[in-house]
């Protein structure tokens, strides 16, 4: 049996992030996050008892952004845009919306305390397998479970627009191992869970649905 325990601490300064530039709304913007912290603990264990094998890993992560101001464009009403998708100029702070400007300052959000993007608080994986000898070959059923808690694909986290839901995935395999040849019957995401892998603006990338297949490998 082998066991590994890790503790990590990362402290980032001036991490560049895309933000909405309300003073030049049609040219985008990049701003540095003054301070971004990510720390946590991870544990992994591998064991082989006769023909039975187990592999377990888990991690707890804490992340935190220092104050930075951004504007969630997905909350803008239609009056924020003019022709061909271009944004109207910004109104002076305190000025109400007019046909010639839009009060972006009313939508400002201080993101202090938000999670780092793609930093789920909890991840866990477990694999169980058992090998049945068949002559010089091995028939090995193998099952996997993985869990990832919710996370965000953007520093904007005032609602669930950029939230990537938590997911629990189950996979199963039947491996036939014979020297340099291996063949696997597999089924992945057996519960056919719908989950988000990435999101950029209005473009959402979903994880693979339930899949079945056969894979054969020859090692040279």
Write the layout of secondary structure elements.
Layout: E1 2-18, E2 30-49, E3 52-65, E4 69-70, E5 109-110, E6 122-130, E7 132-134, E8 137-148, E9 151-152, E10 163-164, E11 167-178, E12 181-188, E13 196-200, E14 203-206, E15 211-218
Antiparallel strand pairs: 1-2, 2-3, 3-6, 4-5, 6-8, 7-8, 8-11, 9-10, 11-12, 12-15, 13-14
Walk me through what this model shows.
With 220 residues, the protein is an all-beta fold. The protein has a domain at 2-9 and 36-65 and 113-218. The chain has no helices and 15 strands. It has strands at residues 2-18, 30-49, 52-65, 69-70, 109-110, 122-130, 132-134, 137-148, 151-152, 163-164, 167-178, 181-188, 196-200, 203-206, 211-218. Strands 1, 2, 3, 6, 7, 8, 11, 12 and 15 form a nine-stranded antiparallel beta sheet that branches. Strands 4-5 form a two-stranded antiparallel ribbon. Strands 9-10 form a two-stranded antiparallel sheet. A hairpin with a 2-residue loop joins strand 11 (167-178) and strand 12. The model has no long low-confidence stretch (mean pLDDT 91).
In brief, what are we looking at here?
0% of the residues lie in helices and 55% in strands.
């Amino acid at each position: 049996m082998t066991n590994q325990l890790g503790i990590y601490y990362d402290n980032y300064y001036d991490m560049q992030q895309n933000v909405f530039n309300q003073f030049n709304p049609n040219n985008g913007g990049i701003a540095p996050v003054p301070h971004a912290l990510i720390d946590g603990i991870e544990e992994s264990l591998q064991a082989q008892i006769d023909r039975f094998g187990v592999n377990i890993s888990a991690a707890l992560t804490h992340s935190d952004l220092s104050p930075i101001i951004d504007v969630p464009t997905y909350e803008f009403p239609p009056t924020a845009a003019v022709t061909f998708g271009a944004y109207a100029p910004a109104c002076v702070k305190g000025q109400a919306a007019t046909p010639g400007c839009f009060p972006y300052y009313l939508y400002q959000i201080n993101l202090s305390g938000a999670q780092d993007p793609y930093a789920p608080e909890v991840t866990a994986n477990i694999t169980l397998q058992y090998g049945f000898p068949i002559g010089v070959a091995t028939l090995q059923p193998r099952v996997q479970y993985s869990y990832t808690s919710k996370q965000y694909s953007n520093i904007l986290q005032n609602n669930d627009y950029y939230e990537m839901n938590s997911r629990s995935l189950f996979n199963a395999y039947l491996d036939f191992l014979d020297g340099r040849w291996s063949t696997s019957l597999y089924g992945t995401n057996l519960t056919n869970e719908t989950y988000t892998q990435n999101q950029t603006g209005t473009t959402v990338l979903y994880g693979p649905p339930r899949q079945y297949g056969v894979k054969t490998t020859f090692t040279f």
